[in-house]
Structure formats: structure tokens, C-alpha cells
Amino acid sequence: MNDRSISGLLPPSPSAIEQLIAIVGHEHALTDPHDQAPFLREWRGRYVGRTPLVLRPGSTAEVSAIMEIANRKRFAIVTQGGNTGLVGGQIPAETGYEIILTTNRLHRIRDVNADAGHMTAEAGVTLAEVQARAAAVDRLFPLSLASEGTCTIGGNLATNAGGVAVLAYGSARQLVLGLEVVLADGRVWDGLRALKKDNTGYDLKQLFVGSEGTLGIITAAVLKLFPAPATKSTALVALPRLDAALQFFRAAERAAGHNLTAFEFISRESLNVVLHHVEGARAPFDTLSQPWYVLIEISSTAQIGEPDDLMQTVLGEALENGLITDAVLARSISQSEALWKLRETLSEAQRFEGGSIKHDISVPVGRIPEFVARAAPIVESICPGCRPIVFGHFGDGNIHYNISQPLEMDKAAYLKLWEPMNEAVHTLVTELGGSISAEHGIGRMKREALTHFRSQVELDLMRQLKQTFDPQGILNPGKLI
Ligand code: FAD
Known about the structure:
This protein is an alpha+beta fold. The protein contains 18 helices and 19 strands. Helix 9 (about 240-255) packs antiparallel against helix 11 (about 305-320).
């Protein structure tokens, strides 16, 4: 079914291209390879595509008109937001037939309703802008990723982005009340409802969340806003063993409840990479004597007291019980930012360590220590001397298990091990009841793997959904399913 719909696609004809250019205007249609270049390559250079045209529509009506032509003439459209995706979903194929539709001119905040607790933003608004507009009315939009200055709210919803605040607030899926979507045939679904309760049949918006541009183009969203925390307490702690992190996590959860807003774990090797490569990054400890570190954050609204007091209680008990060996509590916003910098620059810092074979996986929280212990000899047997750089969102069971190449090895030779390494790690993940993609999605990178790690029933249902929403397969072909 999938193959038939994709194989029926056609290259856009010169006349179709002229019609598309007329919809957005010449200044918003990029045909020059130099102008197109930033849209054709993802940030690590792992995926590079070609396109006859980059379209920059400025309204939902323009997106709709584009899709109506694409559907009628059967050519492919790849939607792109901030181009920060990590699985190649936003990059067109090398064939040069797929047209890129960037949402970067859909950048209006249509409405902010602080009292009712929601905001309506167009798809191309950056996550940082959404956060700032919420903060300006003393509200919080909690989604938080290291890419937030560039990634867009449409991309966040299309990938069901996670990040560092999922523990307390959930992923993008939990933060959306309504959507406006342009369908494959150009019709517009206006689902911009601001309802917390709506039990009128299938929850259509959730089908588009996490669909990676394969079921429709999100043009706007109603987002939930939360009370802004009045104070925050941040600490970095050292742990002697990873299983102590599990006990420490449970203790922190018991003490802080919903006020525990981050619990990020970082291996010593990962911290060393940041300290080595990131300008201005400093460890708050004299030496990194312990193998594991946790960045913990407790936030509160003004009504429930001082988070520093709560943090000190949590840390004091953990020290007494031998779960942690050392802790540094941030005493100012700048100290808190310095601690967060150690976490947020991890992906960037790793680029300087040569080739990195990445796994964005999740397992039940209680099985994280078992996963890390069992994965190490497996990857070592595939590539002796390779260096696991392990970090992630402990409370979500989400591990970024990235394996840097042995120092002396040739990068190209190392990257040839990508598939066997992925397969071995994903097999272990599946054995432990986990997922091969915790938050980055499937895109191009894991499309093949998905077919091995999801059941036939699940794959059939996904293909039937794709067929229903996009019978000609024109939306982001070759991605996800
Ligand atoms: P793009 O990269 O442009 O697109 C991603 C996918 O969404 C593509 O399949 C595209 O076709 C589709 N898409 C984009 N916009 C739309 C739309 N309007 N309608 C329909 N489909 C659309 N991700 C996390 O989940 N957690 C993290 O902690 C995290 N940290 C990151 C840190 C760094 C330094 C970087 C570079 C990336 C990180 N990411 C993380 C990945 C990435 O930022 C997210 O996947 C993000 O949600 C992508 O948004 P984008 O606007 O850049 O989308």
C-alpha cells in the first residue's frame, strides 16, 4: 500500500512550479541553490537532499492552495520548521523532486489568554518565542529543549518533542489543546479549540502530533499555559552508582511531588566531554571522582514555600543514606544557568569527539541501570574501545546512549558500524520493554528499524492511517512509515 502510493508520485512540472510560485510570490519562492542550501542539510550533515523549490507560505490559505495543487498533480511536499530534527524527517530525498514547504513565515502569535491559560501560535513560531510570550504574561509554557531558539512549535508538535520538563509537564502531546491542519488534499481542519474536556469521538489532533509531517501540515496550535514558578532550586549531585540514582529519584519524588521539575542524569565521561569542549563550562566539583551525576531541579509557585529548603532536605537525606556523595546547590540564577549549561551543551560538545552512533531510547525507569550495565559489553564487542556517552531524562526513562568512536579510529570506518550497533542496542531495549525512539521520532533514520521493532498489527494500523489521510503518499514520503 505504502510502496504503491509513493511510487505514483511525479516530479513537479514547470507549469506547476509557476503556479506554486504565484501563490507565495517570487520573493518567497527559493529556486537558487545558494538560497536553498540551509533547507537542504540538517545540522550534523548526516542528511542532505535536493529540491526544485523552497516555498515560504505566509498564511494557512497559501498552504492550502499549495497542497491542493500538489495533490492534484501528485508531487511530494516536505514540511520543514526549524530544521533541528535529529532523524532526517525534514530533509527531502536526493531525487530532487520533493518540494520543501517551510513554515518560517507562519510566525504570528494569534492570541494569548493568560487568565484562561492558553495561547494560539502559528506553526513557525519558535519555541523560545512561545516561552517568552507566556513569560510576558507571567505564565509558563514548559516545553524546553536545547534547540528552543530555532525549533518551531509546529515541529515540536509534529515530532511530539520531549526535553527536560517532561517529568512534570509531559511531552508536546500533553501541552496542546487544539490544532489547525492543512490536509493532503488542501482542505483545512479547524480544530483550534481551547477545551480541556472534549469527548466527542476520536481525538483527531493527537493523530497529527508525532506524525512527522506525514499526515497533514500543522499551521497553528492552541497551547496550554501554566502558572509560572516563582522560585527554582537547582543542584548538581555526584553518585557512586547508577542504581543509587533510582533510589535518589524515588526519594526526591516522594519529597517534592509535582515540584520535582527536572532529574537529568549524566555520566562522568559525558561531563568530561562538555568540560573539554565547551567554552566557559566549569564543573562545580574539584574533581569528577564519581561515575554519575544528576542535575536536579525543584520549582515552586510562591504559595508552597522555598524550594531551596525542600532541596536541602532532599539532598541532606540522600547524603545521609549514602545515595549521593556530594552536592552543589546553585545560589543564584547565574549559578543555576551554569549548571544547566553542562547539560544543555552535551549534544553540541560530542561533535568534537569524532563519529557518534546515537540511540534515543527509553526503558521503564527502574530498568535504566540494567540497560546501561548490559549495553556496555554489547557495544564493546561490536567496536572495542568505543566510548559510551550516556545521559538523559532519568525520570522519563529516556537515555541518550551515544557511542563515540575510539580515539584512534577512522571516522568513516566507525560510522559503518551504525547499523549493527543500533540493531544490538535496540534489541536489548526491546527485551527490556522499551522504545527505540523516546523523543526524536522515526524520520528517515529509524524507518527501517521501526518495521523490526513494532508488531505487524501496529504497522498495519499505521499504514492504514497514512492511506486514509494521504492516499497519494505526497506528504513527506519515505519518512516514518
Ligand atoms: P524540523 O526539524 O523542521 O522538522 C521535524 C519533523 O517535523 C519533520 O518530519 C518535519 O516534516 C515535521 N514538521 C515540521 N513542522 C511541521 C508542521 N508545521 N506540520 C507538520 N509537520 C511538520 N528533541 C526532543 O524531543 N528533545 C530534546 O531534548 C531535543 N534536544 C535537541 C537538542 C539539539 C541541540 C537539537 C539540534 C535538537 C534537539 N531535539 C530534541 C530535536 C528537535 O529539536 C525536535 O525534534 C524539534 O521538535 C524539531 O522542531 P523543528 O521545528 O526544528 O522541526
